[in-house]
Amino acid sequence: MVVSSSEEQYQKYKTDRYIQAGIQQLSQLIAAKSIFAQQIGLAEMAQQLKGIFEAAGATVIVDERYRAPFVIAEFSSPKPDAKTLIFYQHYDTVPADSDQVWTKGAPFTLTEDAGYLYGRGVDDDKGHITARLTAVQRYMAEQGSLPVNIIFIMEGAEESASLDLGAYLSDYRERLSGADLLIWEQGRRNSKGQLEITGGNKGIVTFDLSVQSADTDIHSSFGGVIESASWYLLEAIQSMRDAQGRILIGGIAEAVQPASERELELVRQYAPTDQNDLAELHGLTLDRLATDRDDFLRRLYFEPSLSIQGLSTGYLGQGVKTILPSQATAKMEMRLVPGLTPEFVMHKIEEHLTSQGFNQIRVNMTLGEEAYRSDMSAPAIQKVIKLASAFYEEGISVLPTSPGTGPMHLVYEVLEVPMASFGLGNANSRDHAGDENIAIADYVTHIELVEELIASYV
Fold first, then answer.
1. Key word Oxidoreductase present in the record (predicted)?
2. What domain count does the chain have?
């Protein structure tokens, strides 16, 4: 395989009829909102995918028993001993509301500009669906049949902790078990231009903390003698983490499954990001929490972290309102690593708050997913690594896990299949933000890499 330039890939994008047909499908998918958090368009999107995959020759099941229909699309090989590849995808996206700025077209319109495509879901995850489907269609058109069975499984609640995915997978376990490899929803080229190939992700538990200190707000002249909900909640949160970002909740650190030396070596060798990269990318102005690269990598990939998503208390309108707020709430999250389950963490948080004297805090878990990571040694993953190396001039980056979160643990627990993640995103694809984007050259290269992976099963 000869590495193609961005210009060469763009010409293929403009002239290849299969790629252009896939782009038309992508445009239609992005235009159709499918947002689990707002319960918008999920059933409609599942039916739209059914039509697209059936037109491509797949046998399709749409299971609508839960809030987000589960879609299975199967392409069968005529080989009696054919192995099976699974693509795990999701068709839901996060919202694109007025709190986000889009400068490259409207969020639900696929927009091309200077070699990039923009739109909500273009990277996370609808662009991956159409690129991988295009690879399957092109291979079948050029070779006549597939050397491997290919199954797309597509859920509609990934952005909301994959609610009900476990029930769907359990029901289809026999149909999906025994696969050679499961390719995860997405991936990216990192800031060095390397294709990241990862084998896991962090888990997460999100929860609300709330307190009510009085029946009504109280005049702030009593601030020296009456505790307010605001101060009480802030002090409770402060007790859970030190100034360097270390979690102070008893039992959490002891339960963490330490990274192996092989896993540490992989991130030392391949992890592209350091504190300086983050400072430049995000315009950071506060002090960093990690002191050196090893500490940074260990925390980013292998340790839990506690974050405040949002705080709400008191008066935030125009001018002044001198009160002691009677109510305060915080939306919190902890990113999890192997050894920590959402239920265990919530139990330890409640224990901690009680032991520190914050027994008035109400704790409500809102979602949770466990972590998963692989050592990347499975033969099918090694095959992907070898194939991908030929497609990217800057090379590849092999990581046992990513700092992000997804239902990898859930999928592995049910299907017990080797999993690897790689995709068509870039270091600034801006997933979940305004101007979500992919490079057209990366889209085309991903199609070619997936075709090469299919061909490797001949």
1. no
2. 2
What DSSP letter does each residue of 30-59 carry, written as one string?
HHS--BGGGTBSHHHHHHHHHHHHHHTT-E
Contact 395, 196 (CB under 8 A): no
Residues with Cβ within 8 Å of 310's Cβ and at least 6 positions away in sequence, in order, are 330, 331
The range of the structural domain enclosing residue 431 comes to 6-200+372-455
DSSP summary character for residue 171: H
| Domain edge (last residue) among 353, 369, 385 | 369
**pLDDT digits 0-9 by tens, 181-227:** 999 999 999 988 999 999 999 999 999 999 999 999 999 999 999 99
For residues 185 and 329, state if they share a domain.
Answer: no
Question: How many alpha carbons lie under 13 Å from residue 166 in its C-beta half-sphere?
Answer: 11
pLDDT tens figures, 216-275: 999 999 999 999 999 999 999 999 999 999 999 999 999 999 999 989 999 999 987 777
- Within 195-331, residue ranges assigned H as helices are 229-238, 252-255, 261-270, 275-282, 293-302
**Within 10 Å of residue 114's Cβ, how many Cβ atoms?**
7
